[in-house]
Amino acid sequence: MQKDHLFTRRRMLLAGAAAAGAAGTAGAILAAGGEETAGTAAPAGGPQARQALKPSAFRLQPLTGYGPPRAAPRKLKVRKEPILQVSGRGRRMVLTFDDGPNPAYTPHILDTLAKYDVRAMFFVCGECVVDNRELLVRMADEGHVVGNHTWTHPLLTTMNRKEIRSEMERTSDVIEDTYGDRPQWFRAPYGAWNRAAFQLGAELGMEPMAWTVDTTDWEVPGTDTIIDRVEGGAAPGVVVLSHDAGGDRSQTVRAIREWLPYLIDSGYHLTVPSRRPT
């Protein structure tokens, strides 16, 4: 009798997961080089690239020693340019945050998003996830999309294929080990893409996501300037780039408390993209 109960419960859980997965495929994205086109993202300005860290004994150890083996990622077509915009009816925009998670800034951004019931994309660095797993779990639990932003935030165009794969794959592994799912999106640090990054991202089951509006908050230009850049760049399909780590992000935290309700009051629907089936 107990076995029948467990079997029935397991079937219900699997059915729920399948329904959620089907719902996630609704919607579309504007992809450069695909059926729908968009412009090319130029490398972003920013602080000097950090060199990839040498693997330590700790980093080489598996993060979890148990559980089922990882499933092979779904094969995707290799794009030549990153995705820049989202498509769809209405005034839809996507908010993205890079370089975290960071315990000093990420929780405040998550609090503001929760206050207005808005979902966003967080492109995380693996080395930051290791010390802040609870923030990654919170992101996922609150409906945000977690993307891969490499392990140490290096300039990929200066690295060989093996080094790039290590940066990307280790980050996908730590994301999966933390909350159970591998990321479906990837963003190259500094917006510096090359053929290897596109190829390896596709092999690892990730679509490349760039941005349309850069707040340049990494320059710490002032809260008012960040607000003006978001509000001035707002338009249907826009992808906004901000940062929740990598430096002093207190201006970003203050700015989002101002521009987020402004966008909502202006009729924008802040959403996250669904990856198009291939």
From TrEMBL:
Keywords: Hydrolase, Metal-binding, Signal
Entry-linked InterPro entries: Glyco_hydro/deAcase_b/a-brl, NODB_dom, Polysacc_deacetylase_ArnD, TAT_signal
Residues covered by the NodB homology domain: 91-271
Highest taxon, organism lineage: Bacteria
Signal peptide residue numbers: 1-28
UniProt keyword Nucleotide-binding, yes or no: no
PANTHER family tied to this protein: CHITIN DEACETYLASE 1-RELATED, GLYCOSYL TRANSFERASE-RELATED
Protein name, as recorded: Polysaccharide deacetylase family protein
Organism: Streptomyces albidocamelliae
Lineage: Bacteria, Bacillati, Actinomycetota, Actinomycetes, Kitasatosporales
